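User: Continuing from earlier, I have the next pair ready.

Assistant: Great, send them over.

User: Here they are, in order.

Assistant: Folding the first of the pair now:
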Amino acid sequence: MATKVCGCIHFVQRITFRPHVLFRDARFLSSIKARPTASNGESDASLRKKEYVNERGRTFVDLRRVLVRGGGGGRGCVSWFREPWVRFKRPDGSNGGNGGDVHFVASDRISTLDSVPITTVGVRGKHGRGKGRTGANLPPTEVLVPLGTIVYDVDGEELTDLILPGDRFVAAQGGIGGRGNGEFENGDPKTRIDDVEDPRILGSPGTEARYTLELKTIADVGLVGLPNAGKSTFLGAVSRAHPKVADYPFTTLNPHLGVVEFADHFRFTMADIPGLAIGAAQNVGLGHSFLRHIERSGILLYIVDMSNTNGALQPCVALDALREELKQYNPALLRKPALIAANKMDCGENAVEMLQELKNHTDIPVIPLSSKYGKGVKNVTTLLRRIVMHRRDEEQKSVKPKQSFSDFLQK
């Protein structure tokens, strides 16, 4: 903008007030001030990653009811082609395309049912056009679900179990496209389509169904223990997972999955299951929402608190309580290979005496450790690796194991 003062032309810059920019800058400055300081030597990026992981952990969903509907078929076309040297016009309308199906596809890129929409509708087929141009058939709509998702119908009957990446289930089929009048060009005049209101040109609707999706976490090793036994601390010590750790019970409310890696690139997965409360088999506490994730674990690792502080049960009593809850829920869980990790050996004054009592109380191998300081962690992961390798070899052979689990551990 230019102004003329005393015969001279002065250019004045136009200033535009943009409140959204000021709000964005203020929000950015407040986020910088709110960032925690890395007092324990951790980088700022590491702290923000932990905050993000904790925030995402609140949206864990392992049960969802969904409605799916296949895409409707496209309309057929009623069209007439007239040539200047032909007396009568002829029909040349084509059929509509078929609607798209709806598929449930197992994917290892997601770990919760939170991203699965409650309602999914397939894409409608393209309409037919004149001059013999048929409508396109639309591809299926894929709904990604995490590995270990079980699909039930409205009556509670299990339809499929999506375990491997790429496994799919046709949840709804698309409709068939409508018929064009060009299909009846040489047919009986009584059956021809001569009107756009003919119901035969309408595509059929897709099928509709309701399902219940249930997620059961798949892991090689499942951590089982009472609240505040140190399961999350152990998972954080052996993997790069960042479960929430605090000095109060029921810190973990959602399962966390970690990957234990070795120097020779061997790896296995480990699931941190929320703390098992007494009476979980009767749906007390987190109840069945916790116990369903243990069923997919190949090996059970009991985490027993040896500190005998903060009202913790005696190790033998805690182990019996855990196994009794698993027995009431599903007796088959007790037949899984199992180990006992005697955690918090650095906290209890009588930890050594209680460790010996625990070894005399059960036939399951007991390994002492301190997850907080990393003592004994390598012994646990090494033995777990042997068991995981043994199970994978037997699964590949697809035969009954020739030796029992107790005989294998004695080697």
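And the other member of the pair:
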Amino acid sequence: MNITQLIRMKWTSSGSVTGMAIRAGVTLVVGGGFHGKSTLLRALELGCYDHVPGDGREFVVCDPTAVKIRAEDGRGVERVDISPFISNLPFGKRTDAFSTPDASGSTSQAANIMEALEVGCEVLLIDEDTAATNFMIRSAEMRRLVSLEKEPITPFIAKVRALADVGPDPDVTGPGPGPGPGDGASGVTPPTGVTPRRVSSILVLGGSGDYFAVADTVICMENYAPRDVTAEAAAIARDAFPPGTIHVDERFGKVAARVPDPSSVDAGARPPKVPTTETILWGDDQREIRLGAVEQLCERGQTRFIAEALAAMARTGCVDGGRTTAEALDALEALIAGGDGMDAVGGTRGDLALPRRFEIAAALNRLRGVRMTQRGRSARS
């Protein structure tokens, strides 16, 4: 293993563990097919959970706010501001409060990112195999054929540096030098007194080298072993991408805080059912909440808890028509921490497992018929 980011951590009173550390910023995981890129990312996805001894992943640890992002054609979206990525849609369709019952690959991936940021995500995990290609990159040839003013999608590559360097702060200012591999520099600094919430990204890539120009770290998987190739990738980027070749935005844009309508979250008289880990049947009409693309759900007990939590959020006033989604989740977590634990939400039963706030939010966002307003804006604006 040729990795420069080796660290040693004390593990027990008598021993320590040494392993690879992935720094904050923009990290690429590259390599040939079947060499372990997606396997590494999958291990990191589940590194937000503890593992039992003997699992084999006990020492794979990830930031607890890390969220796996993917395209999700066909999902519903309710008043999400996806304007950092999508704008100028045909027929004047707005994107600062975007709603659709049937999102495309690019709009669903944009919504998934914005919804994760809305509730506190600080690490995005993306595999190109499950991402929308037109959302991730836009080739030089395509830029020549289709002019910028006729393309509504700002690809993720244009935003990933701003996320890592200053975060989703709408007030950042100041031009600066273009970024390069390993230097982490967008030249943008937050205004005085503002503490930025920087958001890192870990991306699995096998087909595009464009991201070399915006990466801090590049890890190559070879026969399931990692090798640090940051310097090599930086050299390739300098040769392949002269200044100005890769468009990089200085600002990410805002993340709108949305307020769920409690009446639209009410489960009704019929209790929710959970036939599988990926499905909740909700309300008197048993609408499906489809969670198949929420990849950090591990077991059916978590989905059962999510169903109970959504019902409890409306019943207990966590969702009250004034709190944002993030604030409602804060209230739910306070309820759980209040002494009764999960029993405060689901009653005394032995078939529940605790998910994170991100999976609960994902279910709320995929509830067909949920109504949201953006804080500070009327329902019609």
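Worth noting for the second one:
Residues 179 and 186 are 5 Å apart (CA to CA). The longest helix spans residues 300-315.
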